[in-house]
């Protein structure tokens, strides 16, 4: 298939395009300097220019807790508008299939562990620091199901958990937790700093998925999942933040002290997915352990830190 990947030059997008090629498909992508997905005419032009069989929508405005806290309106507006434009134009262009990347953040703050797709609308409001972003993504599920119901569109929706791996964003102003910790501990080790300060109190849990495993899930979904129901994509394993910090500290060889700044937000108390639907429906499960993935990620950072 000819597959247009929005955000194809981004973190996940790069790996999805590589996996598409591995599976014999033709990935099509574009730079944000060429097209702005917030502009409806640009979305229309992309599809008319590339004429894809299918679309994987990964383009998003994303960031860690700090970036979400500082840019709630921007994150909500841009993600909602980009996704809405892509859905509408895929309908008008009669695209055979659209795979949309949602977010684990859209689950309620106190969703029972492990998160099951059937609980997606249960439990109330998402965690406050990323709720605007979470609701924007959640609305794209509603839209995709509405277009399927009214027009018969084959639009599907995935819920990937926190990703990490080579080509991640290591900018401390906008990065997620793993690349932020890697950079902080690495620089502290190089500069012989006695203390590394991390956000929150260290008690929350998170689940992480190596980006190459996630890319395989998206391509398998493109090839074999046609349900209107959302599907979790994750490792199914959670880790406490204090344990993650100690893993990364040891990996980079930092010997100083870790301090937790409880004046900063923790984010969602716990995150861990039930991934049985993905295993059953697309015969997929993650294969990269956290220790293996962290080692590969750190090695990539060492080789590319001057560019990050």
What does this structure look like?
The protein is α/β, with parallel strands linked by helices. The chain has a domain at 2-164 and 208-236 and 270-288: NAD(P)-binding Rossmann-like Domain (Rossmann fold), CATH 3.40.50.720. Helices cover 43% and strands 16% of the residues. A six-stranded parallel beta sheet has the order 2-1-3-4-5-9, sandwiched between helices. β1 (2-6), α1 and β2 form a beta-alpha-beta unit. The protein is globular. The mean pLDDT is 96.
How is this structure best summarized?
This protein has 308 residues and is α/β, with parallel strands linked by helices. It has helices at 11-22, 40-50, 65-70, 72-92, 131-151, 177-190, 211-224, 241-252, 276-281, 290-304; strands spanning 2-6, 26-28, 54-57, 97-101, 155-160, 162-164, 195-199, 205-210, 231-233, 238-240, 257-261. The chain has a domain at 2-164 and 208-236 and 270-288: Rossmann fold (3-Layer(aba) Sandwich).
SSE inventory with pairings:
Elements: E1 2-6, H1 11-22, E2 26-28, H2 40-50, E3 54-57, H3 65-70, H4 72-92, E4 97-101, H5 131-151, E5 155-160, E6 162-164, H6 177-190, E7 195-199, E8 205-210, H7 211-224, E9 231-233, E10 238-240, H8 241-252, E11 257-261, H9 276-281, H10 290-304
Parallel strand pairs: 1-2, 1-3, 3-4, 4-5, 5-9, 6-8, 7-11
Antiparallel strand pairs: 8-10
